[in-house]
Design brief:
Length: about 160
């Protein structure tokens, strides 16, 4: 963080980093639940709801890691054609690509929240633990909205990543 960064940029960084830490914790929890379930199998025991927990934790892990990966520009990019363009062409293609990504994640965020609302209205629960699951798509929608914020930062600050890996 530099002193020249505004409050919004610093806040965005903090939220992205907090979600990245939460992603790591969810991944660790997923590993621990899976390993514990496997470890007690020889004793003819199992942890009730392992599949439910691992599924929800997997979705949370992915959703929380997405803004961080976007912030450090860690996604796979095919630059074969991009490098053949001149500086102006690269700027145009890069801007258009970011606008398409923003539109995609806006739709994904909106539909995730709408899906979560439908799950909540239907009182949908996980199969084994019977936990409400509406919050998982809401979480994904929130992470997608955060990706939009990161992409807007990239549009306004070309060539800069929000966070250094």
């Amino acid at each position: 963080m530099t002193k020249s960064d505004g409050f919004l940029v610093q806040s965005l960084r903090k939220v992205v980093m907090a979600l990245a830490a939460f992603s790591g914790a969810a991944l660790l929890a997923m590993i621990l639940v899976t390993c514990a379930d496997i470890a007690i199998r020889p004793f003819k025991m199992s942890i009730k709801g392992t599949v439910d927990l691992v599924g929800m934790l997997g979705a949370v892990t992915m959703a929380c890691a997405l803004p961080y990966t976007t912030a450090i520009k860690g996604h796979v990019a095919v630059e074969f054609f991009f490098l053949k363009l001149g500086p102006r062409g690269r700027m145009v293609v890069d801007t258009l690509a970011r606008l398409v990504v923003i539109a995609f994640f806006a739709v994904l965020s909106w539909r995730s929240v709408a899906y979560g609302n439908s799950l909540r209205a239907a009182h949908e629960v996980s199969p084994t633990l019977e936990m409400p699951i509406f919050w998982v798509p809401w979480f994904i929608g929130g992470s997608c909205a955060l990706v939009i914020c990161v992409k807007i930062y990239h549009l306004l600050n070309p060539g800069k990543s929000l966070i250094k890996p």
